[in-house]
Fold these 2 entries.
Entry 1:
Amino acid sequence: MYDFRKSVVYQIYPKSFCDTNGDGLGDLRGVTAKLDYLKTLGVDYIWMTPFFVSPQRDNGYDVADYRNIDPRFGTMEDFETLCREAKARDIRVMLDMVFNHTSTEHEWFQKALAGDPKYENYYIWKDGDPDTPPNNWQSKFGGSTWEYAPQVGKYYLHLFNKTQADLNWENPEVREEVYKNINWWLDRGLSGFRIDAIINIKKKLPYKDYPADRSDGLSCVDHMLADAQGVGEFLGEMRDRGFASHEAFTVGEVFNEKDEELPDFIGDGGYFSSIFNFSTNVWGGSDKGWYDCKRITPDAYKKCYFDAQKKIGDHGFYSNIIENHDQPRGVSYYIPEGDVCLESKKMLAALYFLMRGLPFIYQGQEIGMENLPVIPIEQVDDISALDQYQVALDAGFTSEEALKIISLRNRDNARTPVQWSAEKNAGFTQGTPWLIVNPNYTKINVASQEQDGNSVLAFYKELIALRKNPDYKETFVYGDVIPFEESRHNLMAYHRKGEKDLLVLGNFQKETQEVTLPSKCKNILLNNYPNVEIEGTQVTLKGYQVF
Ligand code: GLC
Ligand code: CA
């Protein structure tokens, strides 16, 4: 069996990756066209976010048909070509499955609205009068989790947007449908899945109010989810009936897992092969909304990483990220404002990439793409940012303040088209891009970085090659993480100990910093400043230096 632990995964958001027919939307042929680029980078898996038939209210996370490809992205034949070409380059393909909810345009939901009792039982309903939602739960995108459907005179539950109705996993027929869809795709030669929002499938019954504004900072919905017992029964069944027969590689989008659950989730024979390490994502999910959110400091970042490593121990492997399609660009979020530069981008890359776990790279991360400047509300596409804009207005902020509030977390930040070159529209499309191109594309783009041995892209290639280097692979993949000088302010440093003892040192600030090495350094494998030589054990780390 293929040992997934040694892999590097590249996440593709197809809509923004590469457009081949000039309609302004990335497509499957665009992914195929860039496979050589990905091969040169050195990735083993590509994970593609959903391209199934969908009204695209949440860019494909609102699935209207699990088995057909949205014509905007291409055809089944395009998909088969992509898989074949990927295989020829030894790249494995993962899909993104959304089983917590469907689009309200899905046939099942439409039948439910038309009064078919079989399909009504596919979703979660509650009686109530049209003006008073059944309880105080706030959806993850803002606003009540309950939407009144006049056709049936009841409310349906949606933990995300109102066009994403939650499926009723308590109904065995729903679970059957899920497993059938998983197997249908696996039979087409896929290697695995990223499983969306899966920790939300088990709800605590009955659907009662939760006290808002608690000191634990959880929202009512997160509190309810934490209280719900028994998600493991569903997940175990999904593994047995879905993934197991094909030995599929699976990564669960799981938040707030409890320590004692980790062995069940990702231990030997666990529900998933891996889950994401979201520990550095300290937004806090309070009911207040995004205006209540904070940035993370370098020291807190380090603590999150080390705590997560301690927690997981030998239970399994995290999937490590600095960004994805839901989060700000890592360099714009984790590096203090004003310090975002070539060296700091490389430092951030090395520190997460060399940790124990599978490194995931989100498209554009490898060239150091950054967040957008504040854009007018008319240009915002992200449905959660739009919902949260309203939440901020309702809380009394002016529209200018509300715009500023949503700008850091607006998911459009990571969804702007990939900057392939300095040509028009960053070389993403010949047409009009579906979403604004980050104006910095003339400076930050693949074409120029491919020519530059000192670029962020060149550094990512070095990182991947280092992790695969036969001399160090064993240590980087399986070795333990042992923090070094853990309490030192703005220093993030750790040993990877296995066959070898490798030390990763990152100066997480622009000021220099003196460090005494535990022993004389034999060999510098990687660094983000040219011509570094170390004699003895006394080292002066330059601003954001890593090696
Ligand atoms: C996950 C996805 C996100 C989506 C949400 C609802 O968190 O990553 O993009 O909006 O689920 O499906
Ligand atoms: Ca297209």
Entry 2:
Amino acid sequence: MRRPRRGAVPPTAAGTLAAMSEPVPSTPDVLEKLVSLCKQRGFFFGSSEIYGGINALYDYGPLGARMRRNVRNLWWRAMVESRDDVEPIETSIIMNPQVWVASGHVATFSDPLVDCTGTCRKRWRADHLGDLRRERGKPEDAPGCPECGGPLTKARQFNLMFRTHLGPVADDAAQVYLRPETAQGMFVNFATVVQAMRRRLPFGLAQLCKSFRNEISPSNSIFRTREFEQMEMEFFCKPGTDVEWHDYWCTERMRWWTEDCGVRGSRLRLRVHDKEELSHYSTATSDVEYLFPWGWGELEGVADRTDFDLRSHMKHSGRDLSYFDTETTERYVPFVIEPAAGLDRGCLTMLVDAYDEEEVRGEKRVVLRLHPDVAPWQVAVLPLSKKPQLTEVSRALAARLRTRFRTEHDETQSIGRRYRRQDEIGTPLAVTVDFDSLEDNAVTIRERDGMTQVRVPIEQLERACEDQLAACRASALKRARE
Ligand code: GAP
């Protein structure tokens, strides 16, 4: 299960494939500043806050929803649309409960928890006590509750699957689960897809959907939540070719995080699991990890799941999920390589990685250096003032640009404050319409990172934005590779 893969795992020299020399994490207070910025600017905030919120559940505002859509699209493009060996699939969140018996989730998808019987009465994950104490400035091996030091109960296992009931009678026979991973939907449909699509091995099934886990210690904003979105792909291949495919997918997924999403390679690493750390279904797993302000944390796991899941579903369902290779006339149960990433965690990573502060002309500038394909907006059109002769032109220009780029029209507040806002939300280009524009039919394009400005004729604006965005992509790539 994913149990051993959770949370920040200390680096092991032997287990680090791509550890960079002394990577520098962002400053410890970045998360706090970012979470506040994200709420203020409409990226994400606590769910149902007018009722006091609900623990570890979040809502995404207009900018967060846009950014998530962009990251989804990047994943979909890389994993489905640009390949001829991966098919998309969308399976139901609630499945036959036997699926979770076969997968092992009913028996083993649990965390050990302890309760404080002292003053605070809080519940903790037993295997996180050291970290929890450290976070509170106490020695890791201090006795008792991380908060109040009170006595703790013995550890009990707590299953992380959310339960509900199907139909009107809430008895045990009607009990079902909200899926804790999207993967099983792909295993149980393997044979149906092979037949429907006349698919030959190797090929993958990709799915980008919600999963649910009743986490005991959700933490670090949207890093670990109870409802989240997974970007998972199960790649079915011939036994014996799995090691090669595992290497291939590790490389490809590291490439995606850096080249397509602009995450700095100097803060990413691929960490190979030790034998003791491997999940029961896996012979090899490597995690893509990012150096967060609180330490290394997993973004994605790339696992060789062998034929464990297909065999287990064959046993529990009585259905044949083997594959007949017409070329070699062999029948076998495929092995599976699984790159499994989190969308929410991915977005948090891109935001943390992009957050920057600098001093410009004696003033602090906060800027999100987001990749132009990730940023909520690509272009902001700003009239210098709210005078109708300017806004008429700027609105028409925004409407024109909107057909090609993600474009916002922003006319409230002073131009300086609007530039600052666009920097804070990571918009790569700002197009300013001023009074001269009415005379010379030209506008100014300001680029976010270098704050350089160029004057371009309105009739060539689309082309100019295209060129500037290409330059932004190139500098994002350079930054990611540094
Ligand atoms: N099918 C394999 C699987 O689910 P996992 O490592 O448990 O493996 C894959 O999950 C990815 O899903 C993680 O790397 C992480 O990015 C994301 N993820 C897992 N639990 C999460 C949570 N509680 N909140 C946010 N993202 C989570």
